Amino acid sequence: MSEIVEEKGTLIQRTGKKKSYTVLIAGMVLLAASVIFSAYTYRNSYRESVEYGEWVTEIKEEIKAVEAGEAEGDLAELNMWKDQLSEKKAAKEKPYAYGLTLVFFSILLTGKGIYNVVRGVSTAKPDIKRLAQAGLLAALCYIGFAFFKIDIPVGTEKTAFHFGNVFCVLAALLIGGFWGGLAGAVGMTVGDLTTAYVTSAPKTFLLKLLIGLIVGLVAHGIFKLSRSHDKKYIVGVTLFASVCGMGFNIVADPVVGYFYKTYLLGVPQDLAKALAKISAVTTSVNAVVAVIAATIFYLALRPALRKAGLFVLSERE
């Protein structure tokens, strides 16, 4: 329901809220289905991918031995087998990774559904500008990860230096924590699902969403960055919010990654520890790049977007 009130001689429409159970029901149904699907794919295709991974490791060791002159073999044939087995391994991993990603997404959807029931849903028209910018920033997150990265192989797994976090932080600064985090989560999760990092997609979805929420909370929830301030204040808050988001990621990425790989992917603990250590290094470098680049981009875009009438955050946020 909405009401028309008069304020200072001007008619203003205040939009009310109404309870909605649609998102909650959809989230719960999707959660149940995704959990069942994940359990099924883990017992079938994902276990087969583990076997392929063991074969790939064996062939890599054989290739090293041949290259060192410690064994005889056809390197071209061995590399061909390695590539074929790696492709089969990736194909078997995908269903389980998709299932886990849906689990994480459905949990978020269920949480939003609970919020809609408790707090109600606004009857105002959706913010098309913010939605469009979220889509654009999600695409930039995908490009920053998928095309601007340096892979670091560790056994049958990988980690990487990349620019994806730059646009995840920038999104939270420009359009707020929730929408910015969602843009980062969607963009970089799609990047994982369409590359060799497919098994990292569920972890990516969770962590990038949290990065956005933290940056948005600090920048807009606490320091009200969207309001008019002097330049020093804007620079300081932008840097501090970016550091908070990336500082969280430096700690959370290797820690969450270790438990995720050990208990959900079944990676041996020694390899999971090695991946966590290397991830701590790559995440730290990615964080420094993200803080510097996102701050520069935000300071350049903020006045331009304001002038063009495309700054979607209001003075009240």
Keywords:
single chain, about 325 residues, mainly alpha, two-stranded antiparallel ribbon, 8 helices, globular, disordered N terminus
How would you characterize the overall build of this protein?
The structure is a single chain. This protein is about 75% helix and about 10% strand. The chain has about 325 residues and is mainly alpha-helical. The model is unreliable at about 1-15 (pLDDT under 50).
SSE blueprint:
Blueprint: E1 2-7, E2 10-15, E3 17-18, H1 22-67, H2 75-119, E4 121-122, H3 128-146, E5 149-154, E6 157-162, H4 164-175, H5 177-193, H6 201-222, H7 231-263, H8 269-308
Antiparallel strand pairs: 1-2, 3-4, 5-6
List the strand order in the largest sheet: 1-2
Radius of gyration: 23 Å
Order of helices and strands: EEEHHEHEEHHHHH
Strand content: 5-15%
Brief sketch in words of this structure:
With 317 residues, the protein is mainly α.
